[in-house]
């Protein structure tokens, strides 16, 4: 059994799983059904089958395999997010190259996990996505940082937007976001509540006009805030 955490999503959800390997889907279904807030799990081996489920009831969360025969992960994500904008997508993939991670995060997926992630990592990702909108790992943050470092260095200061003024605490929260820390980890490290962490994160989004945590990472790199 998966150990329960003290903080769980407030309501039950339906999860969908798109992967062409039946054995993998069956194993994932078993894991997901142990989570108390997951009401049901629907699975599909190809996109038309998944869309048929969506026509009946749109799931709250989709676990998406990046590459399947006859389907392109980025195109599938773009199609689903265009038609179902409220859908939260977590990518599960054997591919860990920066290009895959940055492409999928820029499309609007909420997290990117390797397929060899353990049960606790999967659970943490799902709960973070449901509670805060995203789940960042060090691998995701490093990929986003490397993806924008070169353009940032190539731009002259005159070409870059002005830097907003951040409080010392906001700068600390931003640095930890860029490290891929969870809200719970940030709360422990800064000796503040998780609610306060989320308040600082929201203020950062407002000040920088970033759409999400990925945008905050990009902002920090482009303005050299991580160098400090």
TrEMBL record:
<dbReference type="GO" id="GO:0000160">
    <property type="term" value="P:phosphorelay signal transduction system"/>
</dbReference>
<dbReference type="InterPro" id="IPR000792">
    <property type="entry name" value="Tscrpt_reg_LuxR_C"/>
</dbReference>
<keyword id="KW-0238">DNA-binding</keyword>
<dbReference type="GO" id="GO:0003677">
    <property type="term" value="F:DNA binding"/>
</dbReference>
<feature type="domain" description="Response regulatory">
    <location>
        <begin position="14"/>
        <end position="130"/>
    </location>
</feature>
<dbReference type="GO" id="GO:0006355">
    <property type="term" value="P:regulation of DNA-templated transcription"/>
</dbReference>
<protein>
    <submittedName>
        <fullName>Response regulator transcription factor</fullName>
    </submittedName>
</protein>
<dbReference type="InterPro" id="IPR058245">
    <property type="entry name" value="NreC/VraR/RcsB-like_REC"/>
</dbReference>
<keyword id="KW-0805">Transcription regulation</keyword>
<dbReference type="InterPro" id="IPR036388">
    <property type="entry name" value="WH-like_DNA-bd_sf"/>
</dbReference>
<dbReference type="InterPro" id="IPR011006">
    <property type="entry name" value="CheY-like_superfamily"/>
</dbReference>
<keyword id="KW-0804">Transcription</keyword>
<dbReference type="Pfam" id="PF00072">
    <property type="entry name" value="Response_reg"/>
</dbReference>
<feature type="domain" description="HTH luxR-type">
    <location>
        <begin position="159"/>
        <end position="224"/>
    </location>
</feature>
<dbReference type="InterPro" id="IPR039420">
    <property type="entry name" value="WalR-like"/>
</dbReference>
<dbReference type="InterPro" id="IPR016032">
    <property type="entry name" value="Sig_transdc_resp-reg_C-effctor"/>
</dbReference>
<keyword id="KW-0597">Phosphoprotein</keyword>
<dbReference type="Pfam" id="PF00196">
    <property type="entry name" value="GerE"/>
</dbReference>
<dbReference type="InterPro" id="IPR001789">
    <property type="entry name" value="Sig_transdc_resp-reg_receiver"/>
</dbReference>
<feature type="modified residue" description="4-aspartylphosphate">
    <location>
        <position position="65"/>
    </location>
</feature>
């Amino acid at each position: 059994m998966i150990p329960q955490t003290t903080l769980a999503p407030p309501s039950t959800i339906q999860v969908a799983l798109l992967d062409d390997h039946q054995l993998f889907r069956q194993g994932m279904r078993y894991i997901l059904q142990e989570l108390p807030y997951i009401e049901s799990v629907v699975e599909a081996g190809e996109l038309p089958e998944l869309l048929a489920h969506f026509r009946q009831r749109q799931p709250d969360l989709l676990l998406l395999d990046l590459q399947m025969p006859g389907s392109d992960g980025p195109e599938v994500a773009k199609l689903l997010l265009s038609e179902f904008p409220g859908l939260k997508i977590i990518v599960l993939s054997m591919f860990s190259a920066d290009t895959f991670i940055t492409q999928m995060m820029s499309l609007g997926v909420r997290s990117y996990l390797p397929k060899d992630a353990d049960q606790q990592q999967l659970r943490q990702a799902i709960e973070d996505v449901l509670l805060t909108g995203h789940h960042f790992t060090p691998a995701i943050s490093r990929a986003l940082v490397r993806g924008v470092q070169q353009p940032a260095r190539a731009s002259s200061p005159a070409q870059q937007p002005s830097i907003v003024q951040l409080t010392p605490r906001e700068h600390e929260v931003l640095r930890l976001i860029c490290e891929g820390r969870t809200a719970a980890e940030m709360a422990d490290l800064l000796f503040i509540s998780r609610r306060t962490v989320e308040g600082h994160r929201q203020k950062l989004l407002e000040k920088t006009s970033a759409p999400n945590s990925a945008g905050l990472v990009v902002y920090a790199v482009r303005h050299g805030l991580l160098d400090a």
